[in-house]
Structures are given as structure tokens and as C-alpha cells.
Design a protein that fits this description.
- The chain has about 800 residues and is an alpha+beta fold.
- It is about 45% helix and about 15% strand.
- The strands form nine sheets. Strands 18-19-17-16-20 form a five-stranded mixed β-sheet, with helices on one face.
- Strand 1 and strand 2 form a beta hairpin.
- The relative contact order is 0.07.
- About 0% of the residues have low confidence.
Length: about 800
């Protein structure tokens, strides 16, 4: 902790950090905590593994990544001034714009370097900056893996293995003194390429065509193919070492020469600052909130309408999981939306735990018991539940209709729709929207550019065989879905969503509640057999009206249409004609039209005129003429009817099929029980068993909280103390911990007893019940009954150890605890 000499390794650099800095590393890279490292050395080793470094690089913004890329092509180690020169250039081609960019880079570079240091991707003092080896390997150039900077290998790397004779030829052609020492030859050529004046003089003698070749290679890729007999311009460049051979047909522009041509810059366009988000429109914040509230109410109504239509049982589940295309089209028609939007509502209801499989042999989807609890909540609380679910859900409805890695179609509610990046993209999009002035609707392209700057390495994805920019697609879906859900209104973030992100669900619901229209207790009946609901209806009224009429159109006002089928549906649910007349008279602000009264009476008069039971099935009717009419109808042939009595017919199909068949023929039969009573069909009784909503698929280890971070840092520190402690050998000389100490049982007992009496710490070797050996630093408290109870500095807790499992004990050196 009190290190005065520069660190020689990453482990030493981490050991020199304070606890807060170590906690910051573990917070930024939570994968390092799985499991908690035993000591600092193990932490440094894990921080340098390929998988962990790749994950850390993917979380860098563009300028921090450009800083790491510059270090990857800089000498190792590199002074800060060298790094800054690679980012800003050597100033030889500076104009006003370039000078302004250099100022921005110089201002942003310390912050970018601090981020790299915090994440243990860079270590060392400013005069000896080192990029961790794995990151250098990932970002450094090679023929198989070109550098993101477009730079090639150094002269020393490109000439490795070249014959001394060939090196002398290059030196002579470049006007340099010949030498038989390959090291001196490489150094002489490198010095030429890094000397601006001499390099300028050399290029002044180059043919114009040769300069054109350099222009094509300077910003990458730096590799080119040549024929066995190259053109004179290429031969001129090759003879002078400006193109060095990689193979018999491939040459490369060495890094030093490319940097001269680039005026010292590692990147063509450094991006120290995030791109600004352009406002597409500026709207009144109150209008935004009102529009978002209206859409929020519509979202709740749409989910309710969807699941109400499945009250009697939803569509079957495909054998591979999910909904068929035909069922998705049917649902889209019911909701009067496009299929992608219908898939979004389905996925949202499923993620919210309102919809699930019923688990039966003939597996179907149905609402869950949680749906009934959800419908009892106020509208604003129902919306908050949907919005919070959407924010954290990894299921991505936009993928529906695409294909997985094996070319199979991705279906709604099916597998393979989880994308772990979705929650982060949604939060980032909303964070950018929240940073804008209230009422500002951003330009989508500028928003995507900002997102790519924040996470440049995480844009492309190969999930499900898709190599397109998945994060950009999720971002565009996020903008559309947030508008559908009422997160935004007219493209701008609403106040209720700002409250949801900043203060939580309670505040968001409180802001939304005044904007939700009050439910109405009336409708307007019209003479064309329609009813107009000028706003949202109270639940009992809406439920009864939905059974009595079909929704014809939705919007600011909902139009219901009465048909013989809809009236029969209400009668099937147990309503009588008198009940329906009374209901309409009580809830209509206009008189009940005569055509509607006639429709109800006419359907009721015929309803139940036929009685169906099980024979397998039978039909009975007091009117023999009706039965004669049915038997004479050719359409009844499939029902396989025969007369049992003047008023009864028997069928060889089940009652449900017979009931449906007669309805298709235009009759209005009613089912009856074995006792002869009419069976009443009630909606809303099909529910799945209690179900747990699908858990989001995490993108990586969760970010630990402060308590876990503190405990992890203490454990790592304690383990490091045990691993690096200095102990005394039996002859009194000091030695670092390595192999386990070895002492006799008598010496072990005497040493731990003395330590318990003096309150000092000792170093022990210990073998557990599984035979695993470890070394620990303990402070004995009590020794009795063949056990030693001590505070274990390694585990940072009090433990009891059997004495017979201690291989040996040694005292700590005098400076071990300093």
C-alpha cells in the first residue's frame, strides 16, 4: 500500500491500490468476482484472461477504445507524451479544425486513460504506461487480425528473418550507410522513417505512382498483393523498405512509415467527444405527457383485450414452442394491429407474467391468476407494471419473423428470443432522451450514432446467425415500442417515465393518474345497431357490453355493433332478454332504438328452442316441423341424425360438435344438462396454474452491491497477506511464503500456544478434509482439545482448525505486518 518504486507487474499495480479503487475495478468488471479471487495475484491473472479482457473492451466508449488502440501500437512501455502524440498527431498538418480537435483530445485523454486504469487494462506510471498483454494481442496488428487503427507491424517485426544481404540492399537504396549487423540495419531504417525531414526528402524522389500506392495503404489495411514482377512504382517502394515482404505475394507498409504519412496519428478521425443528439422536433411538454398518457391507457386496454379474448383458452402451442403464424395473424386481426405489433403485446404480456402455458396435455396459452390481480389495479399501476417489465425484459419481440442460426423461423412466444443486450440498450436510449430538454424528440440517426460511440465494439452481433448491427436494431425497436407503451409521447420522453427512471414506480403512477381519463358509466345507442362509448368504460359495463356486442372500431371513442351472434353470446352467458333490455336502458344516454329491441327479442325467442344433450348427442324440440326441416337439410348429413320420437333426434357425434353444426346451419340451439336444465357458458374461467414470469437472461454477472464489494475486497486483501507474507525459517532467517511450513506436532503446539498468549499472528500450512493444501495467516485466540481457534486473516473471519491437520507453523518476520 505504501509502494515507493514503480510497479513491475499488474499484480503489483493492483496491490498498490486502495480499497476504494479495488472496489471500483470489481464494480466495472463484475466477472472478476466469479468466484472471489484468493489474492491480488489471482485477481491480476483473471483480469488478464482473454474472455475478461474482451468483455472489458466491449464496455469502453469509442475514445477510451481509441486510446487503448493507440497504446497497442505504441512502444511497450510508452510515456504519456507518446500516447498523446499518437492521438493528436505531430502537428505538422494542423489547421484550425485539427488544432481544435487536438485541444479536445488533450482534454479528454486523461479521463480515457483513467477509465483504462480503473478497469486494469492499463497499468504503470505516466512515464511507463503498459497495456495488458491480452489487450495488446487483441488490438495489435497482424495479417490474420488487422489492427483497428489500420497500422501494420513495425520495421523490426516486418524484417524479422530477413537476410542481412537484403537489409543491406534496402539501406543502400534508401541512401543509408550499409552495415552487416541486422540490428543496426533495422535501427537505421526505423530512424529514417521516424525522421520527418529525411523521410520527406526520400518521398520527394518517389514516382507519383508510388505515392498513389502509399495513399491506398496508409489508412489500412496496410497489406497488399504483388506479382512476381511488380510494377516500377511498387519495386521502387519495395527496394527502399517502404513496402516490406510478408510472403512471396504479400507486402506491408511498416508502421513507422505509415505514421509519417499520417502526420503521427494512430486514427484518421479521433472522437474524444460523444456525438451530439440532434433534435428532430421540440414539442410542448404538457402535450407530450398527454399523448403518452393516452397511449399508456391504450396499452393497458390492448393487453386486457388480448387476454380477455383468451379467457376461454388461448391458441395451441407449437411443438417447437410459440405461436403459429396463422394464430399470430388472427390475434393481429382481433387487436386491429399489424403482426409485429401484435407480437410485441404478446411478448410483453408473457414477460409480465400475465400469460403462460396451461401445462395440459393439449398445451395452450391462457391468462394466469396474476392477470386477475393485475386487472384489479388502477390503470396507472397496471401501466407501471408493464413499463418496468419492458425495461428489464430480455425477450425481443422485434426478432419475431426472423430466423435463428439454423435457419428456423422465430415465432412469437417461442424460444431463442432472449437478447441479453436489450435491457442495457433500452436504458441507454432512455438515458439519452432524459438528458434532453423536456419535449425534445431526437433524430433517430443521431441517437444511433451516440449509441455506437458509447459501445462501439458491441454493435455487431452474431447471435442467431445475424451479423448485422443488433444493438442498432434493438435501439430502433426501443423507439417504436416506447411510443406504443406510452414511455414517450410524440417522440419525446414523458414526465411519468422520467419519474419512473429517477424516483421509481410510485412517483410515476402518481404523475400518470391525473392524465388518465375517468371511466364512463354510459354509452350512446344508435339506430344502426351500434353503440358509441365516448371514452373508457367502467369495468362491469365494459365486460357486459363486450359480451353483448362486437367491437367495430377503436380510438378516442369505441364503436360496438350488435349482431344476432353477439346477442346469442350474451344469452349463452346466462342473460335473459329482460336483463338485456334493462341493462341497455340503464346505461344508455339515448333511447334504446326499436331495431335493437326487436333484435334482442327475436334472438331470445329462438334461443333454446332446440335442446341438445348426450346420446352420444340428441336434439329435442316441441315443434316437429323444425326437426323435419333439419332432417331435410342436406347440410345435416354430416351430423348423422336420426329420429327417436316426433320431438327428438339422436346424433352420433359429441354434443359440442352438434351444437356448433346446428349454429352453422343458422339455428340457435342451447345445450342442456342430464336433468334437462339449460347449460350456461360463462367466459373468464380458464386460467393457468400459478406461474412465475420468465426471468430475463443476464448479459453477464450482475453488478455487486456495496456490501458484497466491501466483503470481496477484504477477502482479497486477507488472502494476499497470506500469499505474500514473510515468515521466519527455523534457523531464524526470513523467507517468503512458498511451500508449506513443516514442524513437528510438539513444535506446532508450542508455537500456537505462545502466539495465543502474546496475541501475535503466525503463518501455518493446512490440509483440509479433502486433502487440499493451503497456507494461512492466523492469530490464535484459544488452544484446547486438539483444536486451535484463531482469527484467519486469509478468510477474514474466526475459524477453528484441528491441530493434526496443520503441517507446520512459522513466525512472521518482524516487518510482515508493516
Amino acid at each position: 500500500m505504501g509502494m515507493t518504486t514503480p510497479p513491475r507487474t499488474l499484480a503489483e499495480a493492483l496491490r498498490a491500490r486502495d480499497d476504494e479503487s479495488l472496489a471500483g475495478l470489481l464494480r466495472a468488471r463484475p466477472d472478476l468476482l466469479s468466484p472471489v479471487p484468493n489474492d491480488i495475484t489471482q485477481l491480476a491473472t483473471r483480469a488478464g484472461t482473454r474472455a475478461s479482457v474482451v468483455r472489458a473492451l466491449e464496455h469502453l466508449d469509442r475514445f477510451a477504445l481509441q486510446t487503448a488502440e493507440a497504446l497497442a501500437v505504441a512502444p511497450d512501455p510508452a510515456p504519456y507524451d507518446t500516447l498523446l502524440a499518437l492521438l493528436t498527431g505531430d502537428g505538422q498538418d494542423d489547421g484550425t479544425a485539427r488544432d481544435d480537435a487536438g485541444t479536445a483530445i488533450r482534454s479528454a485523454a486523461p479521463g480515457a486513460l483513467a477509465v483504462l486504469r480503473e478497469q486494469a487494462l492499463v497499468w504503470g506510471e505516466n512515464d511507463r504506461l503498459r497495456l495488458v498483454r491480452t489487450a495488446r494481442e487483441l488490438l495489435a496488428p497482424s495479417p490474420q487480425h488487422p489492427s483497428p487503427t489500420g497500422l501494420g507491424p513495425t520495421v523490426a517485426e516486418a524484417t524479422a528473418g530477413m537476410s542481412p544481404g537484403r537489409l543491406q540492399e534496402i539501406l543502400v537504396a534508401a541512401g543509408l550507410p550499409a552495415t552487416h549487423d541486422p540490428v543496426s540495419a533495422v535501427a537505421s531504417l526505423s530512424a529514417l522513417f521516424t525522421d520527418r525531414s529525411r523521410m520527406g526528402e526520400l518521398l520527394d524522389t518517389a514516382p507519383v505512382e508510388a505515392l498513389s500506392v502509399l495513399d491506398r495503404l496508409v489508412w489500412g489495411p496496410p497489406y497488399g498483393e504483388v506479382t512476381p514482377n511488380p510494377t516500377p512504382p511498387v519495386k521502387w517502394l519495395r527496394d527502399r523498405g517502404l513496402l516490406l515482404p510478408v510472403s512471396t505475394r504479400t507486402v506491408v507498409l511498416p508502421r513507422e512509415a505509415a505514421l509519417h504519412l499520417r502526420a503521427g496519428r494512430a486514427h484518421r478521425v479521433p472522437e474524444p467527444l460523444p456525438p451530439a443528439v440532434v433534435a428532430a422536433a421540440t414539442r410542448d411538454p404538457q402535450a407530450v405527457d398527454s399523448a403518452a398518457a393516452g397511449q399508456a391507457f391504450l396499452a393497458v386496454s390492448t393487453v386486457e383485450e388480448l387476454l380477455t379474448s383468451w379467457n376461454g383458452g388461448g391458441p395451441p402451442i407449437l411443438r417447437a414452442g410459440g405461436l403459429s403464424v396463422r394464430e399470430l395473424k388472427r390475434i393481429a386481426a382481433v387487436l386491429d394491429v399489424s403482426e409485429p405489433i401484435a407480437a410485441f403485446w404478446l411478448e410483453l404480456a408473457y414477460a409480465a407474467g400475465l400469460l403462460a402455458s396451461d401445462g395440459e396435455a393439449d398445451e395452450r396459452y391462457a391468462p394466469t391468476p396474476a392477470y386477475d390481480d393485475w386487472t384489479e389495479l388502477p390503470v396507472q399501476d397496471r401501466w407501471v407494471h408493464l413499463a418496468t417489465t419492458w425495461l428489464s425484459a430480455t425477450r425481443t419481440a422485434g426478432l419475431v419473423g426472423g430466423q435463428d442460426a439454423k435457419g428456423r423461423a422465430l415465432s412469437a412466444l417461442g424460444p431463442e428470443l432472449d437478447r441479453s443486450a436489450a435491457p442495457e440498450v433500452r436504458h441507454r436510449i432512455l438515458a439519452v432522451l432524459a438528458s434532453l430538454h423536456p419535449g425534445t424528440a431526437p433524430d433517430p440517426e443521431s441517437l444511433l450514432a451516440r449509441l455506437r460511440w458509447e459501445r462501439p465494439l458491441r454493435g455487431a452481433s452474431t447471435s442467431a446467425g445475424n451479423t448485422t448491427d443488433l444493438r442498432s436494431r434493438i435501439a430502433l425497436w426501443t423507439l417504436n415500442e416506447s411510443e406504443l407503451l406510452g414511455i414517450t409521447g410524440r417522440g419525446a420522453l414523458s414526465s411519468q417515465c422520467r419519474a419512473l427512471l429517477d424516483s421509481g414506480p410510485v412517483k410515476a403512477a402518481a404523475l400518470l393518474a391525473p392524465l388518465i381519463p375517468e371511466p364512463l358509466d354510459h354509452v350512446l345507442l344508435q339506430a344502426d345497431l351500434t353503440a358509441v362509448a365516448p371514452g373508457p368504460l367502467e369495468r362491469p359495463l365494459a365486460d357486459t357490453l363486450s359480451a353483448l356486442a362486437d367491437i367495430e372500431s377503436k380510438g378516442g371513442a369505441t364503436v360496438y355493433r350488435f349482431t344476432p351472434g353477439s346477442v346469442r353470446r350474451a344469452l349463452d352467458a346466462g342473460q335473459s332478454a329482460a336483463d338485456l333490455h334493462a341493462f341497455l336502458a340503464a346505461h344508455s344516454r339515448t333511447p334504446v332504438p326499436q331495431p335493437l329491441s326487436y333484435l334482442i327479442d327475436d334472438v331470445a325467442r329462438r334461443h333454446g328452442h332446440l335442446r341438445i344433450g348426450a346420446a352420444s348427442a340428441y336434439v329435442r324440440c316441441d315443434d316437429e316441423a323444425v326437426l323435419n326441416e333439419i332432417l331435410a337439410d342436406r347440410r345435416s348429413a354430416t351430423l348423422r341424425l336420426r329420429r327417436l320420437a316426433p320431438t327428438a333426434l339422436a346424433a352420433q357425434i359429441d354434443p359440442a360438435s352438434l351444437l356448433e353444426g346446428l349454429r352453422e346451419m343458422g339455428y340457435a340451439p342451447a345445450a342442456e344438462s342430464a336433468e334437462g336444465d339449460v347449460l350456461i357458458t360463462r367466459a373468464g374461467i380458464r386460467r393457468t396454474p400459478p406461474r412465475t414470469p420468465p426471468a430475463p437472461v443476464p448479459e453477464g454477472p450482475p453488478v455487486p452491491d456495496g456490501t458484497l464489494l466491501g466483503a470481496a475486497v477484504r477477502a482479497i486483501r486477507a488472502g494476499d497477506t497470506a500469499a505474500t507474507v514473510v515468515h521466519k525459517e527455523t534457523d531464524g532467517t526470513a523467507a517468503t511464503a512458498g511451500s508449506l511450513p513443516r514442524t513437528t506436532p510438539a513444535e506446532t503446539l508450542a508455537t500456537v500456544q505462545a502466539a495465543a498468549m502474546t496475541g501475535s499472528a503466525v503463518w501455518i500450512g493446512y490440509v483440509n478434509a479433502e486433502g487440499a493444501a493451503s497456507q494461512r495467516v492466523i492469530a490464535p485466540v484459544r488452544v484446547e482439545g486438539g483444536f486451535v481457534t484463531a482469527y484467519d486473516h486469509t478468510a477474514d473471519e474466526v475459524r477453528t482448525y484441528p491441530l493434526h491437520r496443520i503441517t507446520g507453523v512459522a513466525e512472521l518476520a518482524d516487518d510482515a505486518t508493516t
